[in-house]
Design brief:
463 residues, alpha/beta, Rossmann fold, 2 domains, seven-stranded parallel β-sheet, 17 helices
Length: 463
C-alpha cells in the first residue's frame, strides 16, 4: 500500500515538474535588462503583434509595427506570410516576422455544410500553431497587440499566454467577429451566438483596447461594458501613400500597366477616366453594385449622354469570390454591355498600388460594414494619395471618414452610383472639387494619430 502511494506521488510530482518546466517563460524574469534589437541598440520596449491572417494584407497592423519600431521598440509580427510585406517592414532591424504554418488544403472550403464540419478542425490546428508561436517560438514581450477579428481562437489563446507570460494584452478592434460570421450563417445561428459570447468574454482580459472609429468605441463601452481604456485610433495613410502632382507622370505610370494596354492611347491623351477599387472579394462587399453601374454607364454613353468619357476600372485584391465575378464580367463583355467600360483585375506591389491610387481619377469603396461601426482602410489609402472617393454610405461610421461633397460622395444603390459617375465624369469641375478636398485630407498622417494614442499607451511617447 505504501509503495503504491509512493509510486502515485512520484508520478504526480513528475507530471507537475514537467508541466512547470513546459510553461512559457515570463516577461520580467528573463528580460530584466532592456530588450536588444537586431542592430545591438537597446529598445524602449518590446511588443508582439498577432495577425491571424495574411500579414501583407493587414496594413494597419504593419503600420503599428513600423510605429513601434520607429519609436524605439522591438517588434515580432506573428501571422501568415503569404503576400508581399511593406518594404520598410522587411528591412527594419527592429522588426522580425514569425510565420504561422498555413492550414492544410483539405480544410479550406466555401461550402456551408463543409464549413461547419471543418471549422472545429481548423480551430484546433490554429490553436496548436498559435500556442506554439506565442508561448515558445518567441521571447516574452511586454505587450501583445492582437488584431480582431478574427476572434476565434486568437483572443482565448492570447489571453492565456499573456496571463502566463505576464504580458499586457491590447486588442485592436477593426470590426466584430460575430457580425462577420452573421453574413455567412445568419443572425440566429447558434455559432453566431457562441461567437458573440466568446468575443465579449475574452476581450475583458485586455489591458486596453484600440478601435478604428469613435462609434465602435461607444459600442465597446456600452454594449460590451468594458472597464479598461477604449481608445479610438482612426486609420490614417502611411508615408508611402502620397499625391502625384505631375499629370504626365500619372499618365505614364497608368499607360505602362499591363492591365491598361488595350486603352493605352486613351490614357496618354487624357481621354479616359481611371477608376480604382480595392476589394477582398468577400460577402461584405457587393461587387455587383459596381458592375451594374458600369453597365448602365456604358449604355448611357452610347445613347442619351454620348459626351461621357470611357472608363478603365482597375480592381485590386484577392479573395474567395474573385473567380465568380471575373466570369460574370467576361460574360457581360461578350454580350456587349461594357463597350465603354473596361474592367481589369490586378494584384500590385505596395509601391505600385500607392502610385496607382495617386494616378487614378476616382476611387470606389464597396465596403458595406457588417457591424455598421467599422471603416474601410482602402478609403484612407485613397485619401492619402489625394484620390477622391465614392463609397457605400449606409452605415453609422461613414461620416467619420468622408465629408459629403468635399472629399467624396456616398451612395446606397447601384442607381445612385451611376448618377455619381455620370455627374463627376461628365463635369470635370465637380471631380476637381472633390480632388481638392482629398488632397487636403492627405495631409492627415498615421504618425500624427498614432503617437499621442498608441504611442503614449505603450510608453514610447510622453503624455
Amino acid at each position: 500500500m505504501i509503495e503504491t502511494i509512493i509510486s502515485i506521488a512520484f508520478y504526480i510530482s513528475t507530471a507537475i515538474t514537467l508541466l512547470i518546466c513546459m510553461l512559457p517563460s515570463q516577461y520580467g524574469t528573463t528580460t530584466k535588462d532592456k530588450p536588444i534589437a537586431k542592430d545591438d541598440s537597446p529598445s524602449k520596449t518590446n511588443a508582439q503583434i498577432l495577425v491571424l491572417g495574411d500579414i501583407g494584407r493587414s496594413p494597419r497592423m504593419q503600420y503599428h509595427a513600423l510605429s513601434i519600431a520607429r519609436g524605439g521598440g522591438q517588434v515580432d509580427i506573428i501571422g501568415y506570410h503569404e503576400s508581399e510585406l511593406h518594404p520598410d517592414i522587411s528591412s527594419h532591424p527592429r522588426i522580425s516576422i514569425v510565420a504561422l504554418p498555413p492550414h492544410p488544403a483539405y480544410l479550406q472550403t466555401s461550402h456551408k455544410l463543409l464549413f461547419l464540419l471543418f471549422a472545429p478542425l481548423k480551430v484546433l490546428f490554429q490553436v496548436a500553431c498559435l500556442w506554439t508561436a506565442l508561448a515558445y517560438r518567441t521571447k516574452p514581450a511586454k505587450w501583445l497587440l492582437v488584431q480582431n477579428p478574427p476572434s476565434i481562437p486568437s483572443l482565448a489563446i492570447a489571453s492565456a499566454v499573456c496571463f502566463l507570460r505576464q504580458t499586457f494584452l491590447v486588442i485592436d478592434w477593426h470590426n466584430f467577429g460575430y457580425t462577420i460570421l452573421t453574413l455567412k450563417l445568419g443572425d440566429g445561428h447558434p455559432l453566431v451566438r457562441i461567437s458573440k459570447w466568446y468575443e465579449r468574454r475574452f476581450c475583458r482580459s485586455a489591458t486596453a483596447h484600440l478601435c478604428v472609429t469613435s462609434a465602435m468605441a461607444s459600442v465597446l463601452r456600452k454594449d460590451f461594458r468594458l472597464q479598461a481604456p477604449v481608445l479610438p485610433l482612426h486609420d490614417r495613410p502611411a508615408s508611402h501613400l502620397r499625391p502625384i502632382a505631375d499629370t504626365n507622370i500619372r499618365r505614364e505610370f497608368l499607360a505602362a500597366l499591363p492591365e491598361a494596354q488595350s486603352v493605352r492611347p486613351l490614357i496618354l491623351s487624357g481621354n479616359i477616366r481611371v477608376l480604382v477599387s480595392s476589394t477582398s472579394w468577400t460577402a461584405d462587399e457587393d461587387f455587383s453594385l459596381l458592375i451594374d453601374a458600369l453597365c448602365r454607364y456604358s449604355e448611357l454613353s452610347k445613347t442619351s449622354k454620348p459626351v461621357l468619357p470611357p472608363i478603365l476600372a482597375i480592381i485590386t485584391g484577392k479573395g474567395p469570390q474573385k473567380e465568380m465575378y471575373v466570369n460574370q464580367i467576361a460574360e457581360l463583355e461578350r454580350a456587349g454591355r461594357l463597350e465603354n467600360a473596361t474592367i481589369r483585375t490586378a494584384w500590385l506591389s505596395t509601391p505600385d498600388y500607392a502610385q496607382l491610387l495617386a494616378s487614378a481619377s476616382l476611387g470606389v469603396s464597396l465596403h458595406t460594414s457588417s457591424s455598421g461601426v467599422d471603416l474601410p482602410m482602402k478609403v484612407v489609402d485613397m485619401f492619402g494619395a489625394g484620390l477622391p472617393v465614392v463609397g457605400w454610405n449606409r452605415f453609422e461610421a461613414w461620416p467619420e471618414l468622408v465629408t459629403e461633397g468635399l472629399n467624396g460622395k456616398g451612395f446606397g444603390s447601384s442607381e445612385q452610383l451611376v448618377e455619381q459617375l455620370v455627374e463627376l465624369f461628365g463635369d470635370p469641375s465637380k471631380l476637381e472639387t472633390l480632388r481638392t478636398g482629398a488632397l487636403e485630407e492627405s495631409n492627415r498622417r498615421w504618425d500624427d494619430e498614432w503617437n499621442p494614442v498608441a504611442g503614449k499607451l505603450l510608453g514610447l511617447y510622453p503624455a
